[in-house]
Amino acid sequence: PGQRSYGVTAGLLHTLWDGRRDELALLLDQRLDFGTLLGVYQSAQFNVDTGTAAVHKGARLTRFDLSLNSAPWERLTVRGGVSHFEPIDTAAERSVAAVDPALYIDNGYWRWWTGAGQTMPWGLGLDEEISWTNAAGRFQPGLWRATLSRTGLPGLPYGRVYGTLYNLNNPAGADHGASTGLTAPFFEGKLTLDASAGFRYDRGDEARRRWRAGDANLRLDWRPNLTWSADLAATRVWQGSIHSTSLSGGVSYRW
To answer: Is 53 exposed, middle or buried (0-12, 13-18, 19+ CB in 10 A)?
Structure first.
């Protein structure tokens, strides 16, 4: 608390396509820190036309992120920011996209968001966020998300369970989604169980809205020491009449 710092990083990006100059961009990252009072992070990319642009001539701001975080109180954090993205008008990008350049290049967006987090007694926590997006010249209604979590479960002081509720944009009417999850570490964290499930409240293939399962995930992570680790995972996805199941596993050794 009370400490202040500032850092800046600048760079230049230059690429070739088919042996000729293509992308030229200036990269700029900045970080300003006033301790818990305020933290600011900014990242930007400015692209300059090297003669290969088909739609966007001159200099363009193609990437931009600005986020602000503050903890005015021990149990409260607030945050907000703005993001921008647009495809880069270069010969390489247009060749990979293989579509009308005007349709592809003019497909960027601006997004504004704000949120907060609260720490409550009994290991409970709340987190909320709302965002608005302007894409392709159209302003989209706000998207919101709220999460309730608890850290500390019976017999598992570092276990965590959470539930999230959010909305989805749909021209036919607002849809909603939900997810829930559990993290349970055993044997002092050497074995960890992660389970999660997602749900959606929408029409699907029917005319009537109802809650339906979207996906379920289960993962076991075993780390007996700093050298060996192993994991097993299973995922089940439901998307209309299409169902899929995937299984995976792995063993790692580090020296």
So the answer is: buried
How many CB atoms are closer than 10 A to CB 88? 20
3-class DSSP state of 253:
strand
72-81 residue pLDDT tens: 898 999 999 9
- Residues of the chain by 3-state class (helix, strand, coil), percent to 5: 5, 70, 25
Torsion angle defined by CA atoms of residues 113, 118, 123 and 124, in that order, rounded to the nearest 10 degrees: -70
Q: Evaluate whether 169 touches 140 at the Cβ level (below 8 Å).
A: yes
In Å, the largest CA–CA distance within the chain is 65
| pLDDT tens digits, 191-231 | 999 999 999 987 666 667 788 899 999 999 999 998 999 99
* pLDDT tens per residue, range 155-200: 899 999 999 999 987 766 668 999 999 999 999 899 999 999 999 9
User: Other CB atoms closer than 10 Å to residue 60's CB: what's the count?
Assistant: 20
Q: What are the φ and ψ backbone dihedral angles of 224, each rounded to 5 degrees?
A: -70, -25
* Token representation of residue 195: 């389970």
Residue pair 156/141 in contact (Cβ under 8 Å)? The answer is no
What are the angstrom distances between the C-alpha of 119 and each of 39, 69, 116, 153? 19, 16, 10, 16
